[in-house]
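Q: Here's a chain of 130 amino acids. Please give me its 3D structure as tokens.
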Amino acid sequence: MRHALAFGLALALFAACGGKAPAARHDHDHEHEGHGVQRGLASWYGGGHHGGPTASGERFNKNALTAAHRTLPMNTRVRVTNQRNGRSVVVRINDRGPYGRAVIDVSEAAAKQLDMIDAGVVPVRIEVLE
């Protein structure tokens, strides 16, 4: 009887935990190098959003050197470096997103400076400046 009770208790605990061990996290889309530095994918946005609202409350300007990031504080300045060609640009965070695999979404003007318009998405290094 004691074995049946112990087995039942173990089974109940196993079921309460969802029946399986938590899955290991495989976050290959981006990584942090250290304080203030991140690597991942960058995308860009422009024309269709020009003049629309941003999370900061200002209007999006495709010609300004700005970007969207999920977690960096608004008005943070970061250097974004295209890892394919070494070109970099300093942008100001004024929006939230992106919501896909990319870790930063730069304005059309910034994308032009990074020479990533045709590629659409490129690997980048993001360094917080202030």
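Q: Can you summarize the key feature?
A: The helical segments are 2-16, 108-114.
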